[in-house]
Amino acid sequence: MTAPAPTAAHVTGSPAAAGEPVIRLDGLTKRFGSGADSLLALDDVSFEVRPGEVVALLGLSGSGKSTLLSLLDGLQPPTSGDGTVLGTALARAGRSELRALRRRIGFVFQQFHLVGRLSVLENVCTGALGSLRGPRLGLLSYPRAVRERALDGLEQVGLAAHAFQRADTLSGGQQQRVAVARALMQEPGLLLADEPVASLDPESSAQVMRLLARVARERELTVLCSLHQVDLALSWAHRIVGLRSGRVVMDVATEGIDRATVMRLYEEVAAESAEGMAAAVAAGATVARHPVSASALVPALTKGD
Ligand SMILES: Nc1ncnc2c1ncn2[C@@H]1O[C@H](COP(=O)(O)OP(=O)(O)OP(=O)(O)O)[C@@H](O)[C@H]1O
Predict the structure, then answer these.
(1) Alpha-carbon distance 207 to 5, whole Å?
(2) What predicted TM-score, i.e. pTM, was given to this entire model?
């Protein structure tokens, strides 16, 4: 079956601004390393995400998208500033609080991270491991209620017919839908997705994004998803947050916005890179043969100052 081409008609306006923000960032900053060689990956990032919102995080490679998602998931601490996720203050939380936070956040990865030799259903069951005691081996080691919920989840992502197939026999798009079903087993209060469609063909990409938008709507689930595809962001997200060199440079509702406006996020960086390259060449620098983003270029230009 051919997936319908995504159009802006698939996403309606932002959900009502009811309730506390699920994510509240206030000057969040992340620096890797120290001294002259340190790198500012996130620079004074401030924004909020409300319950039920689907937000696309856009920006060139190296702009800080994955770093931001990993901070929100409590995997690494901010260097300064504050961020609150599902009521947990990232900068002040102890290890056990962060572990508890991670159990309430579903995470979908670019490479799916399924266990290929296990059945599709068992892969989905593993999403419940955080709430079960002890290790599990084999589908029947999971409580019946978990298996039933996993099957419901597969139904929801349209893959119940594949429940007993090995996960590695599915297509990439199907595997990503299984990964979404696995994340939903946590009954998360927030779903983070790091380039979930980067390795998929356009049709599968649209299917996965449509699925994320649908579960967000049906479960009033908040979704923050990094993407490289502007059209998918415009079609499936309520809002776009654009990062450039670790800074938020765009925060717009997708309703009524045109593609050209969003593309400025990339064009201006390309222009800055070109200017920076020209200046570097004029100053006698050796220029890399592969494309260089502004965030990669700036440290290279300033090194040794
Ligand atoms: N653990 C780390 N140590 C040092 N530098 C890091 C680390 N993680 C990320 N960085 C740097 O931080 C910057 C932001 O990287 P990040 O992976 O967040 O970007 P991104 O926007 O997700 O890129 P992509 O779209 O390619 O995934 C990059 O310059 C990267 O090299």
Answers:
(1) 10
(2) 0.84
